[in-house]
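Students often ask why inverse folding is considered easier than folding. One informal answer: many sequences map to the same fold, so there is more than one right answer. In these notes we will look at a single instance of the problem. The structure comes first.
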């Protein structure tokens, strides 16, 4: 018997050598990861509520994430269920047989003793349901209805067992709070109390529109309560989910129903630029190692302006109580909760983007493919009504809202990227687009199946990633290689895609270019405008830089806000608070790493 096993091993070893690769070099589905990359790669639900308009799109937004007995549960708008994970990497969808989960807007969730409680309903009439077995989807059939209209609720259970409801989604009314009675069907124990409202005349980041460039009254929504060192941190989303500047701020109090004081370092969660934008209407959860994480809403807005995704960012509290959410390089690979790092706040893997604007070849492209029937200009978010460019150049332009479209979805389609020199590759992310999709149910679609090959010369190829038998829906397939490799060329080969046309918004490759890092930007200047909510930032271009990251904050040692900009050496910042002293810094980056940061500038 042992001899037969030995012969079989020899046989497969010889076959691998003939093919030119070792089985140990290939990454397969479901292999464990040390890192993740935004947007979070889950099987986002196709939305059903606009089926009558023929608008097919999938979305995930307004995440309420809790830690219950060591497992994480994520409740998401209109998803017909929820997700569970024990590591924040592998998420399992749970679809219970309950009317509630057919389409709840912005559900709230909390842990009450040995149960999970959830609140929300698309009609605006909030119903509280509960279970001791969320992993099984076993929810109690009895439920309690809150006797007043509710939008975007947040539930909070204090250390003493008292339960509070926070709610509101409006550009007219403030966020409200009330104590509930868990022993009496969660009926209100107090009158609803006005808690906080927006003040965009003082808080620049609360202004509406793309890059805060609109005079439309902004929205406040999505409350979430966190408690740290006896202080209550009431988080809120603003100014509108469809914009790149959608973020979260926080007010602080000594009591769960206030009075609350505005945090001068707001916003806490803010990601206005990069591959995918937005970090608002979220939730903050403590992991099993005692570290905090912030989940937020990110925007695509192509198939429909509510086409959104989930983002995950390291979060926490400084020694002085300042809350932070680190979104720097927030759509590059970061280490997962169970991966030990020296400083939780700094979980960036330092795997840089290697594929940006590199030469791309595709085997199939047809600009005459029918225009995406889902694309909408309803909100003005689309800046043009002209037919989009579906060419191969869209595959690595670092914009999730643009995409390449093939003539069909057959197994002859290939995409090849030339990194222009041999580089070290650690991970990749393949972002599929639902171009002209025709799905209007939660029913699981067929999984994306493909392989990725590598080459050093563009002639001799070996398999690097084998998803040919993948059975999981991976719309934002993040693939961390089992071990880093050296290669110049990568080739994606399609096997199966569930839609009529294969469409990819971005084929992103991460690692290290093994060359020179950029030098520190010189002549960094910050010019305050007459409006103290704005500041113009500029610096000299760095010769070999891909882009720059600008940092700012209200103290020199806590530059917790950031914006990543490709190519440009200036930034019009419109997210400041009036009457606050700010500190600024900038760094350059490229495929080889990051420069030293500039000298910190202080602006009164």
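Output (designed amino acids):
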């Amino acid at each position: 018997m042992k001899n037969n096993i030995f012969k079989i091993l020899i046989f497969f070893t010889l076959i691998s050598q003939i093919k030119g690769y070792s089985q140990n070099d290939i990454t397969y589905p479901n292999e464990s990861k040390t890192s993740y990359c935004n947007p979070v790669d889950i099987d986002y639900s196709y939305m059903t509520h606009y089926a009558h308009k023929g608008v097919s799109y999938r979305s995930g937004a307004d995440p309420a994430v809790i830690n219950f007995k060591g497992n994480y549960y994520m409740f998401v708008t209109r998803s017909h269920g929820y997700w569970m994970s024990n590591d924040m990497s592998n998420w399992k969808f749970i679809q219970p047989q309950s009317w509630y989960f057919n389409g709840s807007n912005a559900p709230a969730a909390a842990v009450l003793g040995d149960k999970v409680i959830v609140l929300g309903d698309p009609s605006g009439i909030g119903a509280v349901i509960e279970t001791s077995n969320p992993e099984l989807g076993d929810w109690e059939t009895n439920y309690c209805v809150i006797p007043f209209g509710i939008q975007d609720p947040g539930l909070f259970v204090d250390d003493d067992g008292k339960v509070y409801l926070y709610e509101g989604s409006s550009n007219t009314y403030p966020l409200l709070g009330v104590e509930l009675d868990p022993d009496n069907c969660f009926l209100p124990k107090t009158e609803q109390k006005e808690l906080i409202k927006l003040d965009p005349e003082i808080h620049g980041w609360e202004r509406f529109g793309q890059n805060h460039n609109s005079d439309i009254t902004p929205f406040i929504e999505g409350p979430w309560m966190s408690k740290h060192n006896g202080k209550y941190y009431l988080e809120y989303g603003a100014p509108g989910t469809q914009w790149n500047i959608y973020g979260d701020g926080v007010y602080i109090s000594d009591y769960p129903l206030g009075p609350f004081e505005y945090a001068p370092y707001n916003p806490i969660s803010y990601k206005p630029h990069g591959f995918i934008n937005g970090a608002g209407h979220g939730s903050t959860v403590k992991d099993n190692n005692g570290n905090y994480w912030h989940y937020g809403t990110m925007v695509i807005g192509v198939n429909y302006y509510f086409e959104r995704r989930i983002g995950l960012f390291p979060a926490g509290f400084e020694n002085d109580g300042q809350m932070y959410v680190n979104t720097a390089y927030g759509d590059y690979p970061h280490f997962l909760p169970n991966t030990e790092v020296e400083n939780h706040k700094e979980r960036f893997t330092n795997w840089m983007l290697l594929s940006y604007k590199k030469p791309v070849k595709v085997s199939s492209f047809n600009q005459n493919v029918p225009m995406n029937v889902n694309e909408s200009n309803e909100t003005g978010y689309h800046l043009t009504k002209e037919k989009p460019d579906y060419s191969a150049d869209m595959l690595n332009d670092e914009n999730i809202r643009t995409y390449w479209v093939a003539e069909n979805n057959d197994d002859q389609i290939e995409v090849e990227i030339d990194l222009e020199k041999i580089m070290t590759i650690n991970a990749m992310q393949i972002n599929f687009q639902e171009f002209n999709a025709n799905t209007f149910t939660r029913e699981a679609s067929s999984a994306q199946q493909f392989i990725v090959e590598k080459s050093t010369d563009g002639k001799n190829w070996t398999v690097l990633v084998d998803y040919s038998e993948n059975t999981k829906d991976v719309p934002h397939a993040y693939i961390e290689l089992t071990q880093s490799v050296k290669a110049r060329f990568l080739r994606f080969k399609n096997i199966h895609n569930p839609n009529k046309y294969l469409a990819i918004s971005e084929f992103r490759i991460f690692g290290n270019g093994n060359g020179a890092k950029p030098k520190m930007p010189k002549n960094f200047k910050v010019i305050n405008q007459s409006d103290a909510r704005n500041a113009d930032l500029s610096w000299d271009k760095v010769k070999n830089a891909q882009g720059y990251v600008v940092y700012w904050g209200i103290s020199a040692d806590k530059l917790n806000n950031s914006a990543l900009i490709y190519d440009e050496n200036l930034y019009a910042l419109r997210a400041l608070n009036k009457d606050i002293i700010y500190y600024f810094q900038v760094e350059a980056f490229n495929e080889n790493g990051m420069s030293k940061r500039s000298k910190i500038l202080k602006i009164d």
